[in-house]
Automatic annotation (TrEMBL):
Coiled coil: none annotated. Residues 7-172 form the NAD(P)-binding domain. This is LysR family transcriptional regulator. Keywords: NADP. Pfam families: NAD_binding_10.
């Protein structure tokens, strides 16, 4: 099958392209660096022409309310180009529990992206993943101050990007789900403990202070970002760190 992987040079996109090509499909990566822009629409018709499946793994450059316009415009352009090109399956990557955290602009933007896809003219699949393990470094940097890092005890179920890419490639190669597949890492941590574990394994002497008001995940209620019933990925966090 032929795949146009939009955002195919990013963390997940590059691994999805590799997986699909290793499985003897024909997957082509597209992004701004290859001359395709989902916001201006430049190069999109050519990028999706002849593709059986479009996998959209682009990401907004910011997590603030500008991300709503990013996902609205990019999905409008991509769906129009894919519809014109006769694409039979459109796949996006969203976030487990995304509809339960309307306090976050970025999460509302991802819900908007899902809704635009579901209302559109193309058979579709939505893969929702938990937070990528790679994302921990950014999470730690947001609230670092000298020797301390403040983190809430929000339950988190981190997943390796390789496992996300495997699941996205599998879903993209199958029949459209007309719905959502949830995928998650094999273990649930509280975010503050995950921070402590990360620092200790890296030999970093800073201290994590539990602070229910700190950082982006402070607004998450209960265990909204975890899913015990999700398809569980194999990679454990400490193995990934090692
Ligand atoms: N972080 C998490 O924990 C998490 C969890 C679940 C789901 N997700 C979702 O996973 C998806 C992929 O994330 P990622 O970390 O792999 O992203 P990433 O590494 O930041 O890659 C983003 C890709 O989008 C491309 N891109 C950005 N703006 C573009 C534009 N205007 N036109 C064309 N291409 C553009 C980039 O290419 P250029 O650099 O060439 O522009 C790059 O290939 C996102 O939609 C995100 O919401 C993330």
């Amino acid at each position: 099958m032929k795949f146009a992987v939009i955002g195919g040079t990013g963390l997940i996109g590059s691994q999805v392209v590799k997986n699909l090509n290793a499985a003897r499909h024909e997957a082509v990566p597209h992004s701004q660096s290859t001359g395709v822009d989902v916001i201006s629409g430049q190069g999109l018709d050519e990028a999706v022409a002849g593709a059986d499946v479009v996998v959209n793994l682009t990401n907004s450059p910011t997590f603030d309310d500008a991300s709503l316009a990013f996902f609205q415009t990019s999905m409008d352009h991509l769906l129009a180009a894919a519809h014109k090109g006769g694409v039979g399956h459109f796949v996006i990557l969203s976030i487990v529990g995304v509809d339960q955290v309307p306090e976050l602009d970025y999460y509302r933007a991802k819900v908007l992206q899902e809704n635009i896809l579901a209302a559109g003219p193309i058979p579709y699949s939505i893969v929702r993943a938990t937070q990528f393990m790679d994302f921990m470094e950014a999470v730690l940097s947001w609230t670092a101050d000298g020797d301390t890092i403040r983190l809430p005890a929000t339950p988190i179920q981190p997943i390796a990007s390789k496992d996300v890419a495997d699941a996205v490639a599998e879903v993209a190669s199958g029949v459209p789900l007309a719905g959502i597949r949830n995928i998650a890492g094999p273990e649930i941590f509280s975010l503050d403990d995950l921070g402590r574990l990360t620092l200790s394994r890296k030999g970093d002497n800073r201290t994590v202070v539990t602070d229910p008001t700190a950082g982006m995940f402070a607004v998450v209620k209960g265990d909204a970002l975890t899913d015990k019933d999700a398809q569980l990925a194999p990679t454990r966090y400490t193995d990934w760190l090692a």
